[in-house]
Write a structure and sequence with these properties.
The complex is a heterodimer of chains A (165) and B (319).
Chain A lengths: L1 H22 L3 H21 L3 H25 L12 H23 L13 H11 L1 H29 L1
Chain B lengths: L2 H36 L15 H11 L10 H18 L17 H9 L2 H11 L3 H32 L4 H6 L6 H4 L1 H14 L11 H4 L9 H26 L10 H22 L5 H30 L1
Classes of the chains: A mainly alpha (165), B mainly alpha (319).
Chain lengths: 165, 319
């Protein structure tokens, strides 16, 4: 009973705040709506018993990624960006991506195993043994990829500065 | 879950909440008196015996001050910001135990929970700085975001050594693992790193670049008055209390100690750590902004990695 109430509350909050990200005029409002959506999704994960995933959602997305979003948005000249030109092409792209995501969700839901006794969600130890055991190579390759991306971003921003000065 | 369980839970929340709020009030008095002694003056000693009623007088004064909202502020976010700052700190106390049984929720991933919830606090400061629509506030908010993110990384890494030694992420489990020997002995570098990072996270004086009264007026809280300012003030001291509790629980053996009951031991250690923070505040001048950033990324982060590697290697070699 309590779980159903929590699920519908969190799901409604997630959808409403996701709409807010797109609909709000103020960019800071959009970032904060995205934060609310992330919190609601973390709540849904925790409701499914995946507490570790929920906490990492908070640490990575809310603790790091969104802070940087907010940081950049606050430095923008808000008057210049208050009324962005919304071309018809971007609207069409939005409809197309939403339709594709909806189709993917429908396919995933129709192939899902029947609801029954779910496996217990993995704790920190199970996740760690999986990441650093079975998936060690992929995990380390991903870290190399991320490092290359970070170095590349710094290189591009630095050469841009030199050219302008 | 029966009704008794729920009642017990609510009772524990009320108990911890009132203890935290009471301690926060008297920490402000302790800091002011100690700073007075450090500067060869008396500090507030007129209200009540030895100044003991000063926090109550301060609270009443704050409540009755005029609550101003500057006309160019972004009202919604301006009002929300102090609430976010305070709630994110108070929520952390849900997993902080005062003894093996006095804890709201002893969850197996308590350390992750603390890292996740304390990272929410930066939104309060950022939003306060931005919504005040004032250049000093905005500068304070931006500095806060950069500083808090930079020091979160060595902070998290410096705890990993403790987690390796304890083999648990529950705070009760970590304290139980220190029954023989406190982790400050096995993790001296980790202890120092944690102490430095935590005083940067709580914006204590050598690192209080986001308030920095001689450049930024009062940073992100410049435009706040009355109880909205009071909420920021409470959040700041609750954060320092949380930091003192965590230093005691992670490194100083928590409630372990002979004779006295467990909560009293923890209280004594928290008192000691807080006195250390005041001592540092009274001693060190504020660092420059580039020194602050360089110190985190070029000194603390490599040292935290060295500490992690050495701890992991020794643990594997000795087991």
């Amino acid at each position: 009973m309590i779980e159903a109430v929590l699920f519908w509350g969190l799901a409604a909050a997630a959808v409403a705040s996701a709409l807010g990200v797109v609909a709000l005029q103020n960019p800071v409002g959009s970032v904060m709506a995205l934060l609310a959506a992330m919190l609601a999704t973390a709540g849904l994960y925790a409701l499914m018993g995946a507490v570790v995933v929920a906490l990492f959602q908070l640490i990575v997305y809310i603790g790091a990624v969104l802070v940087l979003f907010l940081f950049v948005v606050m430095l923008l000249d808000l008057k210049a960006s208050a009324a962005p030109a919304r071309a018809a092409a971007s609207g069409a792209a939005g409809v197309g991506i939403t339709a594709a995501a909806g189709w993917a969700a429908w396919v995933a839901a129709s192939h899902a195993p029947p609801a029954g006794s779910p496996r217990p969600a993995p704790g920190v130890f199970e996740l760690a043994f999986d990441l650093f055991g079975r998936h060690l190579l992929v995990f380390e390759l991903t870290s190399v990829l991320l490092l290359a991306a970070a170095v590349g971003a710094i290189f591009i921003s630095r050469t841009g500065k030199r050219r302008s000065s | 879950m029966t009704t008794t369980d729920i009642l017990w839970g609510v009772l524990r929340i009320v108990l911890i909440f009132s203890a935290v709020m009471g301690l926060v009030a008297y920490m402000t008095l302790m800091e002011r008196r100690f700073l007075g002694f450090f500067q060869l003056r008396l500090g507030p000693n007129r209200v009540g015996p030895g100044g003991l009623l000063q926090p109550i007088a301060d609270g009443i004064k704050l409540l009755f001050k005029e609550d101003m909202t500057v006309s160019h502020a972004n009202r919604f976010w301006f009002r929300l910001a102090p609430a976010i700052a305070l709630v994110s700190v108070l929520a952390c106390f849900a997993v902080v135990p005062a003894s093996p049984s006095i804890v709201v929720a002893d969850i197996p991933v308590a350390v992750l929970y603390l890292l996740a919830l304390s990272s929410l606090g930066v939104y309060g400061i950022l939003l306060a700085g931005w919504s005040s629509n004032n250049k000093y506030s905005l500068l304070g908010g931006l500095r806060a975001a950069a500083q808090l993110i930079s020091y979160e990384i060595p902070l998290a890494l410096s705890i990993v050594g403790v987690l390796i030694l304890a083999g648990s992420m529950s705070l009760v489990g970590i304290v139980k693992a220190q029954e023989g020997l406190w982790f400050v002995v096995k993790q001296p570098l980790g202890f120092l790193l944690f102490l430095v990072c935590v005083s940067a996270e709580t914006n204590r004086t050598p690192f209080d670049l986001l308030e920095c009264e001689n450049e930024l007026v009062a940073g992100y809280q410049t435009e706040y008055s009355s109880m909205k300012f009071g909420l920021f003030y409470m959040a700041e001291y609750a954060h320092i209390l949380l930091a003192s509790c965590l230093v005691s629980l992670f490194f100083l053996g928590g409630w372990n100690g002979p004779l006295l009951p467990a909560p009293l031991w923890l209280l004594g250690k928290v008192f000691f750590v807080f006195a250390l923070f005041i001592w540092v505040r009274a001693t060190f001048p504020r660092v420059r902004y580039d020194q602050l950033m360089g110190f985190s990324w070029k000194v603390l982060l490599p040292l935290a990695f060295v500490n992690l590697m050495v701890t992991a290697a020794l643990t594997v070699a000795l087991s």
